[in-house]
Amino acid sequence: MKFLICLFLLLAFLLPAPAQQSPVPIEKEPRHPLIFENQYVRVFDVLIPAGKTTLFHIHKNDSIGVRLTDARIKDKTQGGATEEIIALHDALNQLAVYDERKVRVVEMKFFG
Predict the structure, then answer these.
(1) Are 59 and 26 within 8 A, CB to CB?
(2) Which residue, 26, 36, 76, 81, shows the most beta carbons closer than 10 Å to its own?
(3) How many angstroms separate the first and last alpha carbons of the chain?
């Protein structure tokens, strides 16, 4: 039994680790088709099926995402940190648990 454990540990250290994916520009990410572009804006129509991921990609310009879903989304930074992106109404509902006045301030500031 000790032999099998030693063999397993030896193989674990000797086998090469999976290669880290190099980031690609967003234009080259297959699930991010560009559907409109002018001198001011670019619009991507992104559809990521449940349980699927995208290639690690880079947004070189400032961006804003409008999600037309109630799905939970996780973004991962190049350094490896993962953030869960939540829908705006979920974020406001969570904030309301602590301070309803702050929710109204956010709504007035951003939505008039």
Answers:
(1) yes
(2) 26
(3) 69
Residue the block writes with tokens 């490896």: 80
Q: What are φ and ψ of residue 83, in 5° steps? A: -120, 135
pLDDT digit string, tens, across residues 14-67: 545 455 678 899 999 999 999 999 998 889 988 888 888 888 888 888 887 777
Residue type, 104: R
Q: What is the pTM of this model?
A: 0.53
CA dihedral 65, 70, 71, 77 (to 10 degrees): 30
- Domains of the chain, by residue range, sit at 21-111
Question: How far apart are alpha carbons 92 and 101 in whole angstroms?
Answer: 11
pLDDT digits (tens, 9 = 90+) for 54-87: 888 888 888 877 777 667 777 777 777 777 766 6
| Mode of pairing for the β-strands spanning 24-25 and 57-58 | parallel
Contact 25, 60 (CB under 8 A): yes
